[in-house]
Amino acid sequence: MENVLRPVVVLGGAVVLTLAAGRLLDLLLRRADARHGETPLWGLLRRCGPPFRIVLCTALLRASYPQTKILADHREGVGRALTLVLIASTAWLLIRIATAAVDSTYTRYAAGAGDAARVRRVRTQVALIQRVVTAVVVVVAIAAMLLTFPAMRAVGASMLASAGVLGIVAGIAAQSALGNLFAGLQIAFGDTVRIGDTVVVDKEWGTVEEITLTFLVVRTWDERRITMPVSYFTGKPYENWSRGGAQMTGTVFLHLDHSAPIPLLREQLSEILKDTPEWDGRGSGLVVTDSTPNTIQVRATVTAKDADDIWTVRCVVRERLITWLVDHHPYALPHVNTADAVQQPPLTA
Question: Whole-model pTM?
């Protein structure tokens, strides 16, 4: 009877204590979240519930397993399995805690900051810091799990003995990966490009959607994703339209006949911009910038608060100016001369 009752008591006690502790922790975090609404930290820490329960239950089982005398012939294997689960769940818990702390800090900073460019910079740094912390925790956890095997300890000693040679070989083999890694850190803390910036790379216009330690994703206007190594942004020139502020000035070029009514075009441009909510009101203008034997080049300048709005304003101005010319001044549009050529009179001696 004791051989049956003891395992049930030990295993059942571990499960009951785990559920009770998890419930108590969730209750405390919920109350703390209700009292401290100025920070989302306590609400984010509630995500740590599942790994916390696994860590606690595994630790209790690891400590009390010898008393159960279950699978006594395989005690070492069961103990090692519980140790592996404990290491993995502890790493999971640490990652959740670090993520909650970083996300809480960023959320509070973004809520109180008025500079959108600085917020994007902090967001980029936070995302890369989270990935670095996660990578470090995972690597340490895997190393700790491997060291639980006696054979791996001997391998580890021999690897440490030849670490110099292996380091040189690995450095040569992973030169490109290490270059991208350091380029990612340079982007994160050098403030050259941030998540949310509008960039032009390889004649493609888009918004930076994701930055990792090795690659960067640009979402184009037609919702394509361009994945590029981060080393591209430290070794080649590119356009960053959000650098120094999101406000932009755009241009609209029209090719018209020499008889085009320029003063009326200026007035019409002002009327169009008044009816365009994307125009920020900072400035506008219309001038003749070039001429050819058949046409003149008219340039209209407009402003907007960001790249998306400047694109909309340019399209609206171009469409409505051409429509207005077609309806009211069709003679101002460029036309091709189809008259017969005048014959040159014969030369006289």
Answer: 0.50
